[in-house]
Amino acid sequence: MGFKKTPNVIVTNEKPCIKNTNCVFNDRTVISNHFLKIFSRYSFKSYTVFSTVIMHTNSSSSPLQNPPNLIGNMQSSETPTNPLKRNFETMINNPKQSTQYELDVFKVAMGRNTIAHIDTGSGMIAVMIIKEFEKMFKEQLSEKKLIIFLAPTRKLVEQQCNVVRENTDLRVDFYHGSKASTVDDGKKVDDWDAAVWEHETDKNDIMVMTPTILLNALRNGFIKFEMICLLIIDECHHASGNHPYASIMKEFYLESVNKPKVFGMTAFLANKKGASSTGNCEARITMLENILDSRVYTIQNRTDLQDVTPTASANKSLKITEKSPSGADVTPTASANKSLKITEKSPSGADVTPTASQNKSSKITEKSPSGKDVTPTVSGNKALKITKESPSGAGTTKRKELHGTMPIRAVSGTWGDNHDDGVDFYAYGISFVCSVKDVKYSSFVLLLESKLDDDVANLEMRLYLVSKFVNCKVSSCAKLHLDARQVANGKCFQELFFNGIYAKFFPETDPKLWTPSYMYLLLPLESLDPFEINWKMIDSCVSAIEFVKKSSVSSAEKQNVDSIMTYSENTSMIHFANKCVHKDDITNMVVLAIHTGKLYSVIDILQDETACSPFDGDTKKYSSFEEYFKKKYKIDLVYPAQNMLMLKQSHRAHNLLVDFNGEGILHGKKIKAESCKVNTDRQRYNARLPPELLVTIDARLDVVKSLYLLPSLMHRLEALMLASQLREEITGHMTNIHVSSSLILEAITTLRCNESFSMERLELLGDSVLKYTVSCDLYLRYPNKHEGQLSSARSSQVSNSTLYNLGIVCRLQNYIRDVAFDPTRWTAPGQLPSRPCACDHGVETIEVPIDTKYHTEDPKILTGKCCDRGHRWLGSKTVSDCVEALVGAYFVDGGLTGALHCMKWLGISCELDSSRVDEAIKIASLHVYTPKLDVLQGLESKLGYEFVVKGLLLEAITHATDQNPDQRVGYCYQRLEFLGDSVLDLLITWYLFNKHKDIDPGELTDLRSASVNNENFAYAAVRRNLHGYLQCRSVTLQTQISDYVKFVATSSTDTNSLQTNKSPKALGDLVESIAGAILLDTKLNLDEVWRIFELLLTPIVTPEKLELPPLRELIEYCDSKGYFIKDKCRRLGDGVTAELSLQLEDDLLIAEATSPTRKVARGQAALKLLSQLENKGILRKNQGEDNRDGEIGNKDVKKNDTTRSNVTRFDPQLAANTSIADSKMEEESNSKTEIPVIKSINKNKGGPRSTLFELCRKMQWTMPTFTHSEEKSRTLIEIGEGVDKRTAFNKFESEISLNIPSYGIIKLMGEPRADKKSSCDSAALLMLYELQRQRMLKIG
Ligand SMILES: [Zn+2]
């Protein structure tokens, strides 16, 4: 949709500017990186036909010239010139003018936290949302609630306040810096005390203010964040860095239990200055979404697509056309279909089009048996068209594409309508064991028509609930035959339970809810071993359904049904709709409410309430419950005097796959459990109903409880089925390659799924595997091509767009999982969708055709969420990432054979067979080496490897300059270097991948790039004394090498500075080419290469020894220990002297260095400090591999080891990267001798810790440590006293320990609290008071 417009065109054809592979652009040519990329990709094929280059670019080159029209479809007759400048008053007064966009935004915003594109100053949608809250304010407010409307400027604050005031009946006032109090002698806002604020919050419902005022009021506790029920943020794009918007969200929103709804408005999402590239823009949006805990709402079907991205040329295509040999200009047709077309002749003469066609055979692998150049001669009038939509073509993050989702074959069933003879099922038992002993869950059985793969059918996993978890075990059971009646009854059970709990149950279920593509039964078991289905319960469901059917025929007949029961005055009997039950037997009974179709369990009898009691909702409308049921449901209660029952409604479905308590660890990083607000809503799940409206079901409560677990379990199970389906596609029934379904699942799961696994790590590995196999294949295939040609061929073969095309042909896009599990959209067969999402993509089929009309670059299109047909937008790059990840997965479980098989399936055929290796070896064996034999032997002994083919080693050490005209050797190491580079890349990546299973994928990437680089290899070459073996005749190079060798020798104690010293590239190349030579000599034995190179590279490749720039290393060390560094810089003549001081527990270390620049001076000072730490034995070089924290001083080691699991340093979030005080702090250093003063302590959550942290930083005291103890209970415990009194299931106590230099350690025990952080706050607060008592601190 982004390409329909004809782009503005600049044609530059001044002179032919491309000549062979060397391109020279004249000044007036607009060079696009992308063009260069395209060019380099094909340059291998030695295009000589380029004679003219025409490039189309957009005429407006500045991304900031045209602010994006974000609400492109808004139309207004009044201001036709600029629809954005509409006056909001006119809009509000004429609600009809609300565009669909605004209504959409409103709808979405009511559902979730939203950031919307809204013109500055427009309050329309905000007013609509406020009006919704107004209803709530009028109905039921047991406690004070506030709506806070933030705007960044005074003018906007007043303006928005007026809009709200004019359009709602709520009490509203505005607050900004110049606002004066009406009650307290006209004091300005900043000076208001608690009393003034209390007055203001009491008298208003809505407070419009600047963020600074809110932030201060919150910090001082004048406004309790919990009071806020709606937070509207105007111009919310400011929320970043230290802006008060961001601070409010970080300090208060994130910490709060009852989070308010957030609605952000901005007109400048994609247009902020500085956000010059789109990647940047997208990152900004993501960041904004994270900070505001919201998601941007976008218009998916806008017709008027304006430029919304900062790069003006984003949607314009770059076209390259060339002259055909006949000399005729070929006009670049601006056709609608602009898919990549490269029409070239293959050696066989057939046209090959590497487009993403469904035809697999169209893949090109450049084969040229003779190894000749593959020259794409352009035939006749057929022009070579490279019509490439870029800078953001296939395989880029920017391009988004609509794709479908693959139906899972294993959950399909043909038995839906016709099961007279019964059905044969494969049965899979599901059992649950809870971490809390006496919590029981009923076992279930999953009945499928298909047989699952063993590694899917036998599965163990964990589900997380509030303060407990459940271990689930799926195991395959014998085949099972159910007769027709049993199948029908099973369907009844499923309809009743899943609808009754997650939707609404009504007896006339839509038969369409049982579709052949999604057909299975989940039935409760009496016991798993021996296997016995709980038919008694299922039959009870059937009779309950029968009863409801009968009673709903007509109310007159219903009367008859009711009268079957003999009503007695015996008050110990409770009259349910279908039977009487003794009141002692009702607890935990499962009941179905006839009028709502919901399932409940009975908690208790409400002794004082009957249907005649006053209604608890809108008392104006209904005087009593009896009246409520009569008016609302047309039900006449027969026994209105009967006591009502308190009922528990099941929770809505939650995602139990992530650790609920927000403590889930994903790759070493904390992940946010989005749907963990369960216990806060506890109250809401209780209902009060008269028993006569309830049908009893003879079901145990543990069945209902299991139902709560099933959506999450089935989600994972279905995902594994999908993975094993893909596996079958790739491997078929090959028995020699077995890749686990969970690994494939990992490869098709993106980070956005918020699972504990995702494809990034496999992608990284797969990238290396592809690079290696393709390099190896090219090396062997083209013995006469030089390194540059091989490199460009390789980049083209493993480029994202190539991989993307391969992935699309294999329909991999439909397998990719790119959205977090949304349990509210999961349904069982037979269950009504509770949140349907109709398809508006205009695609009737499940699969989306490959067509540019389903491509977009609109940054507002959100990826992930599926419509009911399973269509979703997917980042184009995700497809190529997934290709890499799959190759990685096959490499992990299937080795190189597995990876090659997977690549073959994808359409990349690499032949690494021994005959070709022999061929390559034969060529090398012809190298004359006799005079250099002693050199080779010396090197061999250094390497610890003896070459079979000495010529390979000789080639590996021969530099290109070793080309004496008289004595041409005719070979050099470059080709081997090309090969060796990919070998080392793979080996090191594989090593890191295995060694670090728990680190963040990003960290793994960092490790790889830190390990696989020329600097490291060069260093290894020098350290192992390999440099002397380089055969080279360049004097310059030899000088460079000896300089570098000297440098390494003199700086051997601080290798830190190596990173900054540029080593001669030849040295790194030498190491790589030796790796390539050994690979060939061992006939591609990767293990053998690694055996040699692991030794050669060892001190570099382990991340523990990863060399950090000294200052960064020092800061990281201090952060980990809670120490503070002070940094003072002063000018001294031409130089800068930096003084760094580091206060240890009982020692002050100072280091000074002078250098021309501040940066270098600080670095050198840091180096000195590091070596001081080393000398003291505090910081050990080459720290233990698995004990990065283990470098603490000797005396502490023991203490740390025993209590380690329990001790936390100061909240790392508070302390992050702050341990180095900026030099601006210089003047403060004197204050160290004085008693510090704190104005007041913020008692809100996090406040005492922040205050103490600030104090420590100022005084350079080591950060305090906390030791926690936790008490868990099945029943609620009371914690705290007075207003702080709370009840919870967990109780935390924290002991704080603060070491004050030359004073000693103070230890205090804080008060018990319901959560860990609060207990730390309590301890921190006590510490502050204790410091005051000891006269080390003044408060107030
Ligand atoms: Zn759709």
Radius of gyration: 36 Å
What is the tally of helical segments?
35
Q: Strand fraction band?
A: 15-25%
Largest sheet: 7 strands, parallel
Parts with pLDDT < 50 across at least 5 consecutive residues:
1-97, 270-279, 299-391, 554-566, 662-683, 1052-1059, 1181-1207, 1209-1232
- The helix-and-strand class reads alpha+beta
- The backbone outline, from C-alpha atoms, is globular
End-to-end separation in angstroms reads 63 Å
The percent range for helix content is 25-40%
What's the overall average pLDDT, rounded?
Answer: 73
- What is the β-strand count? 41
Bound molecules: zinc ion
Main sheet: strand order: 5-6-4-7-8-3-9
Which labels suit this protein?
single chain; 1340 residues; alpha+beta; 7-stranded parallel sheet; 6-stranded antiparallel sheet; 35 helices; 16% strand; globular; disordered N terminus; binds zinc ion
Topology:
Blueprint: E1 18-19, E2 22-23, H1 33-43, H2 88-93, H3 100-111, E3 114-117, H4 124-139, E4 146-150, H5 154-167, E5 172-175, H6 194-203, E6 206-209, H7 211-219, E7 228-233, H8 244-253, E8 261-266, H9 278-291, E9 295-296, E10 318-321, E11 344-345, E12 351-352, E13 385-388, E14 400-403, E15 423-434, E16 444-448, H10 454-457, E17 459-465, E18 468-482, H11 484-502, E19 521-527, E20 532-533, H12 535-551, H13 555-564, E21 573-575, E22 580-582, E23 590-593, E24 599-610, H14 625-633, E25 643-649, E26 665-666, E27 669-670, E28 686-689, E29 694-697, H15 701-731, H16 741-747, H17 760-781, H18 787-798, H19 800-809, E30 855-856, E31 872-875, H20 876-906, H21 914-925, H22 933-943, H23 950-956, H24 974-995, H25 1001-1011, H26 1014-1023, H27 1035-1050, H28 1065-1081, H29 1086-1101, H30 1110-1121, E32 1124-1132, E33 1135-1143, E34 1148-1155, H31 1158-1175, H32 1194-1203, E35 1207-1209, H33 1212-1215, E36 1220-1221, E37 1237-1238, H34 1247-1259, E38 1265-1279, E39 1286-1300, E40 1304-1309, H35 1316-1333, E41 1338-1339
Parallel strand pairs: 3-8, 3-9, 4-6, 4-7, 5-6, 7-8, 32-36, 37-41
Antiparallel strand pairs: 1-2, 10-13, 11-12, 14-30, 14-31, 15-16, 15-18, 16-19, 17-18, 19-20, 21-22, 23-24, 23-29, 24-25, 25-28, 26-27, 32-33, 33-34, 35-38, 38-39, 39-40
Helix pairs in contact: 1-18, 3-4, 7-8, 11-12, 15-16, 16-20, 17-18, 17-20, 17-24, 19-20, 23-28, 24-25, 24-28, 24-29, 26-28, 30-31, 34-35
The structure holds zinc ion.
Zinc ion (ZN) is lined by residues 839, 841, 843, 867, 869, 871.
